[in-house]
Design a protein that fits this description.
three-stranded antiparallel β-sheet; globular; 153 residues; seven-stranded antiparallel β-sheet; single chain
Amino acid sequence: MAQLAGGAVIVTAKDADGAPRGLTTTAVCSVSAEPPLLLACVARSSRTVPALTAGGAFAVNVLGSSHLDVCRTFASKAEDKFAGVEWREGVLGQPLLDDAAIAWAECEVEQIVEAGDHLIFIGAFRHGEVASAAADPIVHYQRSFGRWNEIEE
């Protein structure tokens, strides 16, 4: 799977106490256009799972390439991944990473599917924005982060 390039995104949610939680993942994609559905695959062992299951909603934050530091922080085991990271509550109350994200989507959890050592959270898209269509997203490939470059024909 290291040969499959994917966008690096941060999935965020609030836990039962209202504290923001999140993780970096590449396992996020569109499931359906009508109705609009997204999915996020998360390891059962992730400390973000309780927030994803408790709140009934989550946000997908697409990271801009100038925020590799935020990407790495949320990929780490740090206790407070939100320390020093600017964020705000979205329409559904989920943490949106304004500075680091070039786009985001908030979803209500429709279904949770058990799949091996992961849980697949299927969310109904409720609100989203594109902050910067001109910015390059972070791409993950062969266990490294990089930038999107269009192939010129």
